[in-house]
Here is the input.
Amino acid sequence: MSIKHRIVLPMSMEEEYKNADVPGPSDLEEVIKRLEFRNEKLHKYIDQLIDENHKLRSKMDTVNDIVDEYRNKGTI
Here is the structure.
């Protein structure tokens, strides 16, 4: 049984680039569009969370005022 040795020459930079999975300009445009879409959706979601947070803080202030009234009356 003989073992055949194979000489492998390194690729040039041009060959490396051709064989690599490098995205082209159209792929980058798709990535940019996708990221812009995600960014928009995330900003809308953050705005919703901020609004909800403001509403909850307002309700919390109301509850705290009611509890303070009961404390002042001596009920609690």
The chain is about 75% helix and 0% strand.
